[in-house]
Structure formats: structure tokens, C-alpha cells
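agent> Task received from the user: take the single chain below, predict its 3D structure, and emit C-alpha cells. No templates, no multimer pairing.
agent> Plan: (1) validate residues, (2) run structure prediction, (3) serialize to C-alpha cells, (4) report one or two observations.
agent> Step 1 OK, no nonstandard residues flagged.
tool_call: predict_structure(input=
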Amino acid sequence: MKSLCVYCASSDRLDPKYYAAAEQVGAEIAQRGWALVYGGGKTGLMGAVARGTKGAGGRVVGVIPEFMKERELAFDEADELISVITMRERKMLMETRADAFLALPGGWGTLEELLEILTLAHLEVLHKPVIIFNQDGYYDDLVRLFERIVEERFMHDSVRSKYAVANAIDEIFPLITGWQQQPGDAKWYQTK
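)
tool_result: status=success, residues=192
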């Protein structure tokens, strides 16, 4: 069974449209026969995507730090709930358990996870699909920043092949299943 790692917000203060979309993404994961790998929480978009997956009969694998579990933030209905000590351990386990990555809207934690995975893809340590779900233009400014980074030559334009942007839920899985790993620019940096 393939697994999709989903990075997303844990906030319970969001517009309801974000929870609805996260739950729909979870249902899509299950309907496609994939498992969800995520941060193990029951709140925010994390809880919504887990409930959506579980509600559609899918497998949910949560990876949660002990300090969050102690605050009763864990999604106890997960098929597998892995406790770790640090956030770094959490990210490493999620990375190794996933066949693809999806970033839903989120805050600093989501951005940090997304940027770490993109960095690993850029360095050619990771060769898995990375999809950014740009719900209602949420990530427009980030994508523009990525373009400026290339335009200003902080990174080679080959980084554009390390991620794809989905503007609708029905675009996510076609981008994952149609993913073709593009050669990176690691050699480019060695020769410059």
C-alpha cells in the first residue's frame, strides 16, 4: 500500500472551507487505496484529513511527539500511532514512511516541513512527488517567491521540477501518479 504524507495546519480557528477540503483530501486518499501518513493530531486540518481518510475506510498512520500526546492532541482512532520524542524524529519517520508528499494550507510548521522536503528533493536525496495544494490561492505568494528565487539566481531553474502545484483537489492524485523525477542541478552547483 502506498502512503501519502500530508503536511497541514493544526489550528481550529480556520475558515470552514479548509476543514472541508482537508476531509475531502482524506477521503480521496482512502478511495485511491493509499494510506495517510501525517503528524498524528486530532485538531485542525490534521484532524480533518485523518477523519476523512478513516471515514472512507482508509489507513491512518500518525507520528506524534510525546509532548503533543500528553496534551491529549493525538488522533486516537489512527490505525498506527507512533510516538517520538522530537519534531525531527517525527519528520524523519514521516519522510521514510511516505511515497509522496502533499502540503495543504498551514502555518510555520507546515512551511518548515514543506521546505525541508523540497530541500531534500533539490539535493537529490529524495526522489518522490511533492505537491502543494494551493487552495483558493493560499500559496500564491510562496510560489511567486520560489519564482523570484530562480529569477535572482539563488537557485537553478531545475528546482521548478521538484514540486507541482494543484489548484483543485481533483488535480492532486493525477500529479502524483504522473510524476516523473526530473534530473536536478546538483552537478550544476559542483561545476559553478
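agent> Step 4: summary for the user.
The chain has one domain: 3-191.
agent> Done.
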